[in-house]
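Sequence only, no structure available. Ideas?
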Amino acid sequence: MNSVNRTINRSSSIEPASERNRHSLVLQAWEAINSERELEGVLAAVAKMLVPVVPFFAVAVIAPEARKEAPWALHIAHLPGRGDEGADNVHRRLKGTLPPIAPTPQKKLIPYEGSELEAVKRADQPYICDDLLKKDAWFPHEFKLGAVGVRAYTSIPLKARGKGIGVLVFSRVKPDPFRPEQMTILVDVSRAIAVAVANALANAEIARLRDQLEAENVALRDQLSRVTKFEDMVGDSPSLRRALEAVEQVAA
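Reply:
I predicted one. Tokens follow.
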């Protein structure tokens, strides 16, 4: 473990008062999930109650099953407006509001395979970057983070029913490391957000299946309407009978 990238130890001691505050924050996160139907709204509600305790610039859900390598939901804590109207719109409004971090020629690309990031992900541990500028090389996603001015961030795996469903990313525009006690809070809150992500993925799958079923019903009605037209046909030729029998066989 170096000074730039860290993982956390869940066994670190927490004072009783801090423990009560942590439980209160987690409870508020669950309440936010129950009161918000859209994932962007969940992130906005969670940010509202978290930022005063664990300051951050933005929080994003990266769910590969929903949209490959793109934020599925994104909330900017201090962006004018609601900041929860969808990842694409927020990202467009975000561009130009912060100075980007220009990678120097010495910034090499780190492949994910065999990296520390891959190792902590397999262990279901958060990945923490204290300062992008102190890293000699960047992961592919860190070039994107640097492009919008992010300096420090943490990536927390999201799981539902033992299955990985994405990551939750908290970012800062200053080289302000996420402290162990802050990470404990974020990890606990991430469990609540994982439920919201799982529900959103399930709803998206239900919507996809509903659309597919509606399309199949339309196609079936079209086929049946064509079949019924043959009932009024008159003819005794063997070739016509064979054609109509073939139509009946494939109609189903």
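Residues 180-228 form the longest helix (49 residues).
Hope that gets you unstuck.
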